[in-house]
Amino acid sequence: MAVSAERISVYSLADLKNTTDDALPVYLNSLKFTQSHTLTDVRLALGYSAFLLCAATFYWDYTYGFDSTKLYTTIAVAIYTLLNTVLTFWIWGVEKTTVYVGTLPSTGEKITVQSRTEKHKPVYRLTVTTTGRDGQRVRKMVDKAFSNWFDVRGHFCAKPFQQILASGVEVLGRVDPKNVVREERVFEKEQEVDGRTMDDKWASLLAESAGGEVAAETSATPGKSAKRRNKKA
Question: From which residue to which does the signal peptide run (predicted)?
Answer without folding.
Answer: none
